[in-house]
Amino acid sequence: MGQIVELIRRFGLLRLWRVKRRHDKALPFIRGYCATVSVWALLNTGVMDEMARGPAVSAAELAAKFGLDKRVLDTILEYLDCIRVLTRNADGRYSLDELGRTILEEPRGMFDLACGYEPVLGELTGLLRGRKKFGRDVTRRGEFVAKGSGELGRQLPFPVLADMVKRAGFRGVLDLGCGDLEFLFTLSAADSALRCYGIDVSVDAVEHARRRLADSPFRGRVTVEHGDMFEADAFLERWKDVDVMTACDTFHEHLFGGTERIEKLLARYHERFPGVALLVAEFCGQDHARLRKSPTAFVEHRLWHDLTDQVILSAREWRGIFRRAGYRITDERVFDVVGHGYFLLR
Hints:
Structural class: alpha/beta
Low-confidence stretches: none
Number of strands: 9
CATH class of the largest domain: Alpha Beta
Order of helices and strands: HHHHHEEHHHHHEHEHEHEHEHHHEE
Number of domains: 2
Oligomer: single chain
Shape: globular
Largest sheet: 7 strands, mixed
CATH superfamily of the largest domain: Vaccinia Virus protein VP39
Number of helices: 17
Strand content: 5-15%
């Protein structure tokens, strides 16, 4: 109490109150960053998953099991205990707090996706000054983008797409930009007679997908290969049983500079493979005033996409692209509340 009285006497109560109030407003930004990178470290080394599986565990045990620097691990664990992501008991052993358990559920995909874009965010000043350029000096982490997209896809996009595939009665699926194969796993789990193929241009994503496939029960029913969706003709000619191509949050990555490239691609597929339908899931832009009033996670998605030369269009603009490519929409579901749309084209 005496220290507080001394500070008030030296600086004045009003000034101290203003300083604290301003720091309190700024702290969530700093803490959010520190907490995020700390959680990344524990997720990427397996520590958080280990803590979720069993009873409270010591830093020494975790360091020994995963080959980690105990001093650094101690620092991270103590920090996350202070902000209630973890809980340290009287014996100095750690377990997940409620917030830590929550992070490992649905929000985990956001953490992995953010980790995929971290190299871009880390070079933001250089990008802003024009000293760095995305694609030349800075890239995303393909494996984490694939993981995060797969984890988030399980929550809405994949169930919606799977329902549309089932209702249309498709038997062979070629997923363009398959990522970690989570969507094709979802389809295969629902229908054992479905034949699934996936291609992705990212070597990291394909290697990650192959590791997942090798440990999955779908090895005989899912095929994954490195390939560019702009050259998918050869795959369609080889995999004759494909009757639908799927593209989940894939086309928007190729709209920088205009829609012509995607329109030409779709027009070619419509002309060359008229018997193969196209099922598209894409981000659909939301009004800025609406986002400012209610800043959902779509705000971060838009930031990441804009910084990496990806373009988010409105549902109306997507319909125009499909129409100009020669397709007609036979089924459509647009969820404005999350900024996502689903279009079955024939």
